[in-house]
Here is the input.
Amino acid sequence: MGGEFFTAYAHGKDPQSAFQSAVEEARYQCGHGGYTGTIAEKDGYTVRSRTPMSPKAAEEFAEQDGQDNEKWGPAYAVPVSKSRKTKEHTGSVSAKTKEEAMEKAKKKYPNALIHKVECEGKPHSLRIKSERGRTGRPKIKYALEGLDRDDAVHGNNRFDSFAEAKKAAKGVMFERIARRFYTEEWRLQKNWSRINVVPVIVFEGAGEGNGLTMHRVSVGINDKNAKWTVYYSKEKAGDEIDGWLFYGWASS
Here is the structure.
């Protein structure tokens, strides 16, 4: 003779009436010959919890709690409520973005309904750094305009006087003539013979007191985790008993 694990649900608030209904149903389905492996082999029950559970929770509880049930002893029983009640909760997670906060909330509260997440601080704020210094003394110099990559100019194209710049321009023109006079490129080049001398302002002696004030501002983003409030709700079984779940081992 062996044994089989069983579960049997019967409607009703009174456990004794529910037990009798479950036994009668099992005997109707399996007969009165004995060794059915059902609740029909039980002559009584023991209440294992007085707290109503949802049908799913009751089945899970029975699966764990009923393993030590004696097949010749009474069945185990727990109350079942099919009604539901919802309770609101708040929690928190740390994240950089709203999407990340929602994903973390779902993992932290897996059996809850997440309504929304709200940031308590600023997940992205500007980081502004300001520096102040002196540019140095402004001075007018002269530069050549219209140079190409093949032109060789000394002094980084900055000359102290117009005469020096004009002389440098003539030198560049002579080099161009020597380089291009007998080539097709020279004949097709536009404005190859034009170089302009233009005034430019440069600043010398940076940091000296008689220069111009310079402000340098750098802007970045503070990409740090912020605290997010999570609003969620959980459903649980109601307080009213709708029936009883009986379980345990029975001879078969």
User: Anything to note?
Assistant: The helical segments are 15-30, 55-65, 98-108, 162-180, 184-188. The chain has five helices and eleven strands.
